Amino acid sequence: MIERFEVLAEGLNHPEGLAWNPVDGHVYAGGEGGEFYRVSMDGTVELLGATGGSMLGIAVDGNGRVYACDDGNGEIARLDPAAGTIETFARGVGGVDLDEPNVAAFGPDGSLYVTCSGDDRPEIVRIRDGVTERWCDELVEYPNGMAVLPDGDAMLVIESHAQRIARVPIRADGSAGGATTFAELPDTDADGLALDADGHVWATLYRPDGLVRFDPSGAEVLRIDDHLATTLDAPTNLAFAGADLALAVVANVGDRFLAAADLGVRGLALHYPLIGPELA
């Protein structure tokens, strides 16, 4: 199935994070110089601005604004594509730097969850109503890719150094429940997560290069292996794109391109809450 992938867009500065923006019909990606890129479905790349930091994970709200984990500046940066502005959306607890902010994902209530992968303070924070709080400190082995489940009652998180995907409940009061193992990923350095419309879970493998698909029980049902990096190059995140979410787009941080393929499955729409113009 690796042969289905083709280059969608080139010339990006080692993109790690990406997300589909259903408001304007583009893929957004970041670069290691803090770049915000907008990519059309025909592969046209626009550089919309840069912070000078280093962008990792990307999320989008219901107004089409784009949120990036800016590891270089220890914060979440927000781009308004319509206005052409970039601002600091949030920092860490008490205003300190976020410790390697890695992936961001919205819940249905407008909470923005962020995995922080740093050695000093590995955690998941929640940003809500302008306040950043430490939400979960149980996953200490490099919390990484993350996806909030459709009902908003749990999230899946890649714990890269533990070589597993963890499931963390989101309780009715908004607090984190105890983590359990959803799936094992032995002998890998896994990075990103995506959900498809069949209820399956996709993980990107930074090493050995490839993708893995799990059924709703956590059993592996497909592995797309590219361990020689002939097509992908250190794939970090996957987003389903297009009006029908039928195109799987993969960021390749080891190079300067996005790859794309029709994998025969549609993606599951993410949570796109409406966030006011003020800081959430």
Describe this structure in words.
With 280 residues, the protein is mostly beta strands. It is built from no helices and 24 strands. The chain has strands at residues 6-10, 18-21, 26-30, 35-39, 45-50, 55-60, 66-70, 75-80, 85-90, 101-106, 112-116, 123-128, 131-136, 143-148, 154-159, 164-169, 180-184, 189-195, 201-207, 210-214, 220-225, 235-241, 247-252, 257-261. The strands form six sheets. It has a four-stranded antiparallel sheet with strand order 1-24-23-22, with no helix packed on it. A hairpin with a 4-residue loop joins strand 23 and strand 24 (257-261). It is globular, with a radius of gyration of 17 Å. The relative contact order is 0.17. The model has no long low-confidence stretch (mean pLDDT 97).
Overview features:
mainly beta
Rough outline:
globular
Count of DSSP-assigned helices: 0
Summarize the helix and strand pattern as letters: EEEEEEEEEEEEEEEEEEEEEEEE
Count of DSSP strands:
24
How large a portion of the residues is in β-strands, by DSSP E? over 45%
Helix/strand-derived category reads mainly beta
Unreliably modeled segments: none
Largest sheet: 4 strands, antiparallel
Helix content: under 10%
**Cα distance spanning the termini:** 41 Å
Average of pLDDT: 97
**What kind of assembly state do the chains in view correspond to?**
single chain
* Rounded radius of gyration (Å): 17 Å
